[in-house]
Amino acid sequence: MLNVVILAAGLGKRMQSALPKVLHPIAGKPMLEHVLDSARLLQPDRIVVVVGHGAETVEAKFAGQDDLRFVIQQPQQGTGHAVMQAVPELLGEGAADTTLVLYGDVPLVQPDTLQALLDARQEGLAILTEHVADPTGYGRIVRDESGFIARIVEHKDASDVERAINEVNTGILAAPTSRLKLWLDRLDNSNAQGEYYLTDVVGFSVSDGVAVSAAHPAHSWETLGVNSRVQQAQLERAWQEEQARRLLEQGVTIADPARFDLRGTLSCGRDVFIDVGCVFEGDVVLGDGVHIAAHCVLSNVTLGEKSRIEAFSHLDQTTTQSDVKVGPFARLRPGTRLGEGAQIGNFVEVKNSHFGPASKASHLSYIGDAVLGEQVNVGAGTITCNYDGANKHQTIIEDNVFIGSDTQLVAPVRVGKGATIGAGTTVTRDVPADSLTISRSPQKTIDSWVRPTKKKAES
Ligand code: UD1
Ligand code: CA
Predict the structure, then answer these.
(1) Mean pLDDT, the chain, as a whole number?
(2) What CA–CA distance (Å, rounded) separates 270 from 268?
(3) What's the pTM value of the predicted model, to 2 decimals?
(4) Residues 297 and 367 grouped into a single domain
(5) Residue 194 C-alpha to ligand 1 middle, in angstroms?
(6) Which of 155, 216, 363, 393 is catalytic?
């Protein structure tokens, strides 16, 4: 049996926030959710989250995830005290049954590192430790003359000699569950902070003759905790660079990995290019040879191969076939679908509309709730008037239609195959196929027109 206990009761005062610390995001996802995602990959039998400050908000955020048990720690009297609150929920009494302790504010510990820790546990206790340049503030790993772990001493309780130790406790550990319960019963708070230290179980393990071994994280950022916005920003950047590195290794070109933001998943074909300052959210899929120019935001988007998104475009819940061109300065809203070779130019907004193959809206248009066939040309300034103030209506534009500039299509309306609409037309009725439709007030000229002149100010 594997239990995972996640400590998430702390206040997070230095975040200066109304939001509980573990709900603050890294890469768009609450820190606690990162921890849960990694924990779940270990297929534990039980996950217990210890909450305290902002408990209701934290629980509400994960409502409906039935594999989670929440226990309240109130007041917060230390990490050992926090794990004590989880004891009634722990499963398994056998020597191989394990409890893994994680921190809700150490979001990026990787499943491989946790597996290495579980492997190190064998029949004893395993702690995740690390050698750091500046160990200030951390618990120090005290080893005996033979190099075996003897105990952990907290910074505030440590002697000068102990403070010189640079192997530190990351806080993450894997313990035999039945032993852990006994050790927790033995904790006291006679220390510099008056807290029940989880770290004291290391000394108990040694005195009980239970082996203590150490595992180490594969990357230093895995065990970085977040106590402030500064640390959150630093961890965000470390994680973004890691995500960028993984994509580079898969063959994606990222113009500058330091100016890349992925808040979700990004799956790329071969030879994808991503310029600086782009943000990817939700699930984004880019086909072979896709080119994303600078400063684009793509949220839940799938792009067909060789598509190009030019600079400063915003795409949300949009799907395209191959070879489309979008932007610069385009806005594709939810429900946009573009057929092969379709083109959306600058200052064009599209919502809930389908463009057939090779159809174009190149300049300054609003296309909403529309279905366009293939080879349709939408002139500059064309607007689908899809909303009557109460309901939305559809515009249907069949194949090979040419719509002149500054046309308004008052929906519901249908434009038949091959029709031409003259510039400036307000289309209020269906347009027959292969015809010219135009609504325009006749042009008139007044000869010898004298412009008004500005009146002189009275003195
Ligand atoms: C702890 C370790 C220290 C280690 C360090 C790594 C102990 C006694 N010390 O110290 O050896 O080097 O982490 O960062 O364990 N929490 C609760 N309830 C509490 C207290 C804490 O849920 O009563 C949670 C916090 O929200 C946080 C985590 O436990 O997620 C760690 O608590 P924190 O106060 O940061 O521990 P440290 O004193 O830094
Ligand atoms: Ca801490």
Answers:
(1) 97
(2) 7
(3) 0.93
(4) yes
(5) 13
(6) 363
| In-domain check, residue 459 | no
In DSSP terms, 410 is beta-bridged to: 385
Going from the Cα of 119 to the center of ligand 2, the distance in angstroms, rounded, reads 26
Residue 349 lies in a domain: yes
Residues 285, 410 within the same domain: yes
Determine, yes or no, domain membership for 311: yes
Q: Do 16 and 119 reside in the same domain of the chain?
A: yes
Which whole number is the average pLDDT over 318-347? 98
Same domain, residue pair 210 and 245: no
What confidence category does residue 458 fall into, taking pLDDT thresholds of 50, 70 and 90?
confident
- Closest CA to ligand 1's atom 21: 79
Judge contact between 392 and 409, C-beta under 8 A: no
Q: Are residues 206 and 255 in the same domain?
A: no
Residue 452 lies in a domain: no
Tokens found for residue 384: 């689908």
- For 287-297, the pLDDT digits (tens) are 999 999 999 99
Domain co-membership, 357 together with 383? yes
CA distance 88 to 100: 15
User: Which among 425, 419, 428 has a CA at the least distance from the CA of 405?
Assistant: 425
> 122 falls in which pLDDT band (50, 70, 90)?
confident
Six-digit token string for 453: 């002149």
